[in-house]
Amino acid sequence: MIGAGGIVNDAHLPAYKIAGFWVTGIYDIDRDRALQTAERFDIPLVYYSQEDMLARSPRSVVFDVAVPGGQLLSVLRQLPDGCHVLMQKPMGEDLAMAREILELTRAKNMTAGVNFQLRYAPVMLAARRMADAGLLGDVHDMEVVVNVFTPWDLWTFLATAPRLEILYHSIHYVDLVRSWFGNPKRVLAKTVRNPRTPSLSATKSMIMLDYGDWKRVHIATNHGHKFKDSQCSYVQWEGTEGALHAVMGVNLDYPKGRPDTLSFAKTDEGWQTLPTQGNWFPDAFVGSMGSLQAYVAGDVKTLPTSVEDAIDTMRAVEAAYISSERDGVPLNR
Ligand SMILES: NC(=O)c1ccc[n+]([C@@H]2O[C@H](COP(=O)([O-])OP(=O)(O)OC[C@H]3O[C@@H](n4cnc5c(N)ncnc54)[C@H](O)[C@@H]3O)[C@@H](O)[C@H]2O)c1
Questions:
Q1: What DSSP designation does 251 have?
Q2: Which of 242, 205, 215 is nearest to 319 (CA)?
Q3: pTM (two decimals)
């Protein structure tokens, strides 16, 4: 583990405990955080430096990097050629940095994945299986709606981040949509700030992913919504034969969360809740690490969240920010 912050404690390590993945050691520039995390999760080694970590790591390890996006390049540069690495999203702070990261992983011949774990949340896997089994018919509508209160002050590095909501949060939904429909033709977006958090950059977004005239796909988020009875956090798919509604509970009480649920409705019939087990936090993190391990071990032929795929999620995020600045048609005089 490189990084011993919030997400490592809330999701990575609880997931690895469930899965039985063995964590050989941990390093953080803040040694106290590494020591506390090691104690909490019975991790045998706390390294003094990244060099110390490299000297004591067998070649077979996966380096699990969970540091802020702006720190990724400097951490990756120090890792050995040919190693295996799972890096936290975002893949850098913008598309230019993402391209540098991609080039670096290619030049160093790394097996590298980005931790886009929402695809592996139990309700998302179940939704996928139902769609693949034809239960929805032709899926022509997908919407992600999140109206919640997110405690952004948990992340000190976000206090000055020029890009916030889309880059650090909606990026998961952009990636999820891509896992269903591939790359959109165009992205239209507007991301705006909240007067209740004037020191932060934009925390509310509307993103429309253009898949032509027969699909409506959008992401709508408001992370400053403190009105409890109207808070919501869901993904909904509509097909010609049926619909699915997945609640992402973690956003409703971050990071503790509430349960994820999945409901199904056949056309013209009522919704029924399906018996799913597990939640985005922490269970999905078993999938992002497990799929990389399975790929490295040769058990599977593809790595769905490899850097080669993740770069397209970063391209879509970049397109959203460009669209937010320049798109829209001014009214006629
Ligand atoms: N669902 C998700 O996938 C999800 C959720 C939350 C955060 N994240 C991502 O995880 C990353 C970390 O977030 P967090 O919530 O843990 O933040 P955090 O601020 O709680 O922790 C970051 C940790 O990284 C350490 N660090 C920074 N630079 C380092 C370096 N060069 N080497 C070693 N350690 C270093 C810091 O000391 C700190 O302990 C962010 O990029 C964030 O986007 C992902």
A1: G
A2: 205
A3: 0.97
**30 CB within 6 A, ligand 1:** yes
pLDDT tens per residue, range 34-71: 999 999 999 999 999 999 999 999 989 999 999 999 99
Task: Tell how far the Cα of 65 is from the centroid of ligand 1, in angstroms.
Answer: 8
**What pLDDT does 170 receive?**
98
User: Cα torsion for 284, 289, 294, 300, to the nearest 10°?
Assistant: 60
> Using CA atoms, how far apart are residues 52 and 33, in angstroms rounded to an integer?
17
Pairing mode of beta strands 45-46, 25-26: parallel
CA-only gyration radius of the chain, Å: 20
Q: Which residues of the chain have pLDDT under 50?
A: none
Selection from 199, 196, 255, 202 nearest residue 226 by Cα: 196
What separation in Å is there between the alpha carbon of 67 and the centre of ligand 1?
4
Q: How far apart are CA 280 and CA 115, in angstroms?
A: 13
